[in-house]
Amino acid sequence: MSKENTLLGAFHIAISILYIVISGTIGVIFCGKSLLSTGLFDFNPVNVAGAIAAAFLFLFAIVGFISGTAMMLNQKWAKIPVLILGCINLISIPLGTTLGVYTIWVYMHDEKKQKKTTEIVNRPVKVVSNDHEEIGYHFSLLRKGVK
Known about the structure:
Elements: H1 3-38, H2 45-72, H3 79-89, H4 95-118, E1 119-128, E2 134-144
Antiparallel strand pairs: 1-2
């Protein structure tokens, strides 16, 4: 894998750490307020929505951290979750949008590079005998575009 994939993994780890901090802050603001005042969780709609948002953001961050780590370790399975997370991150302006655009760019750049180097061409090759008489044709598989 390339340098871009390692850098992409590092960016996903960094933004996941930021999301963990934000989810903890949301959890403390919405859940901690009611726990400190009454000792019990107050089930009003605002606190429940805050707790759900904090839990969702925390799970999103954990998946991003695991996928970013796998991307840095050159695991092939990490491409799909990183691409999905990058597309979801497009909503989060400005850091998520930047990371989402960079994720899509790296993914498309890698796909184009991979397609260029692994295209196989099936073309006929003339078979000639030792007397330079044409015997016939057979097909050979040649790699096209390999550097």
